[in-house]
Design goal:
elongated, 3-stranded antiparallel sheet, mainly alpha, 6 helices, two-stranded antiparallel ribbon
């Protein structure tokens, strides 16, 4: 039988009472009051009748309820309603029979099997952006020459277009696609090679690139802490950069770009918060750092 609503001893804090609404514990609490407090006139104006001497009407007991027992509250056991097993239930449980949900709600953060908190999606994206900027800065000396050739080719084409327009010609010069393809492919492959070395070196050593370290996250095996081994990092990085590699190839470049986009978005709906490259390497991106690998 479900216990009637009323004030009962708070299972979490014996020094106070908590109101049971007949279904679940409420958030209303009140300090316990001594059974003799109603007989005291300390602090009361002269001539005021103590509470225990006043006539009582139904519902006039206030938050403390009638002092029906020495427990200082309405004791259901005094009415023959003894709690099951002779013990009072824990906070969040009915004093009668069925447990009720605890007060309040806290979201559960996704973790690895051993309890490491997984990184949020935005931190991963920002970390990769920081790493890309670093790699591009390092690659500038190596890519300056092909980028200069590409810029010169494009400038020549633009001047030809302007000259044709000024001459009133309706025929535009041929786009220098072939002339631009070589330098741009060289730049893309150079940056990609640097990024591979950059990521593999940092992840196998510390589990975090400078971008990830700046955001307070790192990479580890899903089932084991510490920097991931070389084999896992190679699988992870190969799948991660496959989209960029295919994207550099004419005709099929759109497929590579589409794969790269899906890979970046995958953790948003994956129950383990893994991107496709994380699944290939059996890794997770977690909050915090990994113990540095000495060998």
């Amino acid at each position: 039988m479900t216990q009637p609503s009323g004030w009962y001893e708070d299972p979490q804090d014996p020094s106070q009472l908590r109101y049971w609404d007949g279904v679940i514990w409420s958030s209303h609490v009140t300090p316990k009051v001594s059974p003799t407090v109603g007989q005291s006139n300390i602090g009361m104006p002269y001539g005021v009748t103590p509470a225990s001497a006043r006539p009582e009407a139904p519902g006039s007991h206030g938050a403390q309820g009638p002092p029906a027992s020495q427990r200082g509250y309405d004791d259901p056991s005094a009415k023959g309603q003894v709690p099951q097993g002779g013990q009072w239930p824990a906070y969040g449980q009915s004093p009668g029979q069925l447990p009720a949900p605890p007060l309040g709600w806290a979201p559960q953060r996704a973790t690895t099997p051993d309890g490491a908190v997984l990184s949020g999606w935005w931190k991963r994206v920002l970390a990769r952006l920081i790493d890309s900027i670093i790699v591009w800065i390092v690659a500038l000396p190596l890519t300056f020459a092909p980028m200069e050739r590409a810029a010169t080719t494009f400038a020549d084409f633009f001047r030809q277009v302007v000259a044709a327009a000024e001459a009133g010609s309706s025929t535009l010069p041929t786009q220098p696609t072939a002339e631009l393809a070589g330098p741009l492919l060289q730049v893309s492959l150079t940056v990609l090679a640097l990024y591979l070395v950059y990521e593999i070196a940092f992840l196998t050593r510390t589990g975090a690139t400078p971008g990830k370290r700046a955001l307070g996250i790192s990479v580890r095996l899903r089932d084991k802490p510490g920097p991931p081994p070389l084999a896992a990092v190679l699988r992870r990085t190969a799948v991660k950069e496959a989209g960029n590699l295919v994207g550099s190839v004419p005709v099929v470049g759109l497929l590579g770009s589409l794969f790269g986009l899906i890979n970046v978005l995958w953790p948003l709906w994956d129950d383990k918060k893994q991107a496709i490259h994380d699944k290939a390497g059996a890794t997770n991106v977690v909050v915090g750092s990994q113990t540095r690998r000495d060998t």
